[in-house]
Design brief:
Belongs to the TRM112 family. The protein is of the alpha+beta class. The chain contains 4 helices and 4 strands. Helix content is 27%, strand content 20%.
Length: 124
């Protein structure tokens, strides 16, 4: 699972009522891998408004990944920033582990890079 995907996932457990703790999901016991991908600066610039930068920054720090504290004023003109962003959101993959909701403690397993976001009937 790429970190760009993680940035768009939140807890949907019925009794998880604190929206401030449903996102971002916290990684637990994860195995990371780098998988090279072609860089597309146009895609990166278009995706920036959709990325929750504070959540991505929090996740990056949790995983000991270097990321600038804020998005530059002109990201399209900052090749170093785009290179770092590309590496973090598109080449960094979570192979195995889990994501945990800080609101309710629900754990979402990640196996072979695929997060299991399915809930039991009583959690819906």
């Amino acid at each position: 699972m790429r970190l760009i995907t993680h940035n768009m996932l939140k807890c949907h457990v019925k009794n998880c009522t604190d929206p401030d703790k449903q996102f971002p999901l916290r990684f637990k016991d994860v195995q990371l891998e780098q998988i090279e991908a072609d860089r597309n600066d146009e895609f990166l610039v278009r995706m920036l408004p959709r990325i929750d930068w504070a959540a991505l920054l929090k996740t990056a720090k949790e995983l000991n990944i270097e990321l600038p504290d804020k998005v530059p004023e002109s990201p399209a003109d900052d090749g170093e920033f785009l290179s770092t962003l590309h590496t973090v959101i598109l080449e960094t993959h979570v192979k195995d582990g889990s994501m945990v909701c800080d609101g309710c403690g629900h754990e979402y397993k990640i196996t072979n890079g695929i997060p299991n976001m399915l809930l039991a009937e009583h959690e819906i």
